[in-house]
Structures are given as structure tokens and as C-alpha cells.
Amino acid sequence: MTLVVRAFAARTGLVARPVEDRYHRTVIPLGGGIAIFATMLVFMLAGAAAIRFVFMKGHFAALAEKANIDPADFAAKLSQLAVMLLAAGLLFALGLWDDIKRLGPRFKLVVQFAVAFMAAAWAEIRVEFFIQNSLVTSLLSAFWIVLIVNAFNFLDNMDGLSAGIAAIAASILFTAAAMSGQVFVAGLALIFIGALLGFLVFNFPPAGIFMGDAGSMVVGFFVAMLTLRTTYYHQARSGQWYPVLLPLVVMAVPLYDFLSVTALRISQGNSPFVGDTQHFSHRLRKRGLTDTQTALTLYLATLCTGLGAVILYGASLAGAVLVLVQTVMVLAIIAILETASNNDKKAE
User: What is the pLDDT of residues 89-110, one digit of tens each?
Assistant: First the structure.
């Protein structure tokens, strides 16, 4: 799909051209988001059709029984899957429109929040651990979804970052879902990871295609969905509340980049949604790392925090504290690198 879209984008002028607030200096085809979304849509609809018209009819019953899977459990979630795909489709359309016409940030935020609230309310993509009021949890979950959508939009600032980090985060969440027996969520995660890796082949430095906002919004939405739908709390395993911190630990590096760049832009009197080259990845690049080294550094930082997050599922209080300390230390290393970069700039 990425190969097809890349050729189509080059012929139709759907490309990213070099501008002052962007890192790349050559014309690169856009539309990778089309390949990512189309691939996920095809496989999820095929899976839904197989459940509805094959497994629910009793075919391959022995295989389902051997795998300890009840097709009725999947069938009960098909309506939720339909809402997820509708929400992802709306964000994809919004992102593609923005890739072509360059929409204003306020309009995009309004649409993002409306779509996120719809997904939280209708597809139960929300967390309900502490609060029982569905309206409140839907609003909080919508805020989280919008935050993650924009965090991955911000991450799409250099070759391979957004797709690679999303694949790592989704792999961690897949592991957590599998450990808690959530076959439906784990299946969605596998499809998502596969689509990301297929695109990353052509997006890893030097990138031959960009995902664009059509891709980053869909990627951010599915990462947010996985963080909200994966079960972290099990009384029989941990008996404590701290496994719910898993999404924050997994998303530590993307959230740090998003929050630090936003704060920096605001302190400079600029809009937080106006692009620039002040991301952590750009700072690493200015210190002499290649694009490949920069991508791998951020992959490893995300993997470092993510691996610690996995053990939160059954960790003791001491283990949870160690995971949080490790996460803070990784972010501290990032902060030191950024400070060193600033000192070099002042010296010059």
C-alpha cells in the first residue's frame, strides 16, 4: 500500500515541500497515512467479517475451542469496533484535508475533541478506575485522546520517529493486553503494529514518504485507544492502584517532547501549534547525530521506559517506585542533553 500511495502522491502533487519550519530539505511524497489507515481498515473489516460469517456460524469451532476463544465475545465488540473505525476515519479525513489545504489549529482541535468524545462515549474507549460517572470519564478520556493525537503529530518531525515510537508503544501495550487475556485488544494492536512496520520500511531514514497529518492523527488515536482499552488493574495480581500508571510510563518520551516543545513555544510568544525545529530530535541532530542515530536514540529511550511499564501489571510497591524512578531518570538524561545543546549555542 505504501508503494502504491507513494507513486500516486508523486503524480498528483500530494507532497511535502521544504519550508522554514520543517526539517526536510527535499520534496517528499505525502500520503503514508492513507496506506496505514487503508491497511488497518482492510484487515479489521476482514477480521470482523470472519467472526460474523465464519466463526459465528460454527465453522472452525474446534480451532476456536483449542485457542480458548469464544467468537461471541468478539461479536459483542463489533459495534465498538465500528465506532473506532468511524472515529479513525473522521480523523483521517481531517488530517488528509489538512495535508492538502492547511487547516487552522483551532478548527482541528474542535473536531479532534468531538471525535474523541464520540469514541469515548460510544465505543467505551475510556478509563473508569476511579470515577463512576460516564460523562466525566468520557470527557477526561477525550482530553487524553486529543493529547496523544497531537503528541504523535508533534513527533512526526523527523524521518521514522512517529511510526517507530508508535510501534514500540503499541508492542508494549500488546504485551500488557496479552498478559491480561484481552484477545480483542491484542488483535487490534497486532494489526496496528503490522501496518506501522510496513510503512516504516519506507519512512525510516532516509524517508521516501511521510505519513502526514492523515497518518499522525490516526496513529495517535489508535495508540490512545490501546492505552485506554488495555486492562492494567487486576486485584488478583497486584492488588494495588499503580498499574494504571502504565500509559503514562509508556508515553513518557512522546509526552515529554510534546510538553517541553509546547512550553518552549509559549515562552517565546509563539503558538504551540506552529511548527519549528526545536524538538528533542532536532536538538540531537544539531549535536552531531545522524538521522538514523537520532531515531534509534528515541526508540531506545521509549523502549527503556516501556519495558519497565510491563512489570507494573504485577509489581509490588517497591517495583512500581523503581519503574517510576527509571522513567524520571530517562527523562532527566533527555533534559541534560537539551541543556548541553543550549549551552553550546550560548557559547557560539
Answer: 999 999 999 999 888 899 999 9
